[in-house]
Specification:
Hydrolase that can remove 'Lys-48'-linked conjugated ubiquitin from proteins. This protein has about 180 residues and is an alpha+beta fold. It contains six helices and seven strands, in the order αββααααβββαββ. The protein has helices at about 1-5, 45-60, 65-75, 80-85, 100-110, 160-165; strands at about 10-15, 35-40, 120-125, 130-135, 145-150, 170-175, 180-185. Strand 3 and strand 4 form a beta hairpin. The two termini are about 20 Å apart.
């Protein structure tokens, strides 16, 4: 996923160190993670694979999820994440500090698109051309995503495209009534 986020050209991996990498100042409040991140850049997939095998225990530790999130965001780059979000407010967490759909897509596909449909949609339901196409999932994901919410009307349900419904591996992240889960076969 990191390699895919870097568009198969390279990626960044963050590991948590013991010592801060920059001094504390009044513009930043220490969180005991960000100031201790060490960045590693990779231009060859084989080098990344060897590195990850050697340091996988960092991602199995309590801070592993945040390390993976930082690594994904830095591999995709902030300008590309903003581009993926189209004209939306560029944020990966909701105002309630919940995971946004764009963040789920970034972690599953390497792109921070807000949409769950396949491909690009150029026209509205009325047949009118959109000012900007709505870009969804462009290729089959390694891990799938399924969504259902009881409050959605049957004729206006969130549509998840087949690229997420039928992943390469039989593993799905689910979001049912606002709660995340995992299914696997």
């Amino acid at each position: 996923m990191l390699w895919r986020a870097g568009e198969n050209n390279g990626c960044q991996v963050c590991l948590h160190g013991n010592q801060p990498c920059f001094p504390n100042n009044n513009m930043y409040r220490d969180d005991n993670i960000t100031e201790r991140l060490h960045l590693f850049a990779f231009k060859k997939y084989q080098d990344l694979e060897m590195f990850m095998k050697r340091y996988i225990h960092f991602f199995e530790a309590p801070t592993g999820c945040i390390l993976y999130l930082y690594s994904m965001a830095l591999s995709r780059t902030v300008p590309k994440i903003i581009e993926d979000l189209e004209d939306a407010i560029p944020q990966l967490l909701t105002d309630n500090e919940d995971v946004s759909g764009a963040l789920v897509n970034l972690l599953l596909t390497g792109r921070a698109t807000r949409h769950l449909h396949n491909g690009k949609i150029d026209y509205s339901e009325d047949g009118e051309a959109l000012n900007q196409p709505m870009v969804g999932i462009l290729e089959r994901s390694e891990i799938g995503f399924l969504y259902w919410h009881k409050d959605e009307a049957n004729d206006n349900r969130t549509q998840v495209g087949s690229m997420l419904k039928t992943p390469r591996c039989p593993v799905w992240i689910t979001k049912v009534n606002g709660q995340f889960g995992c299914l696997f076969s």
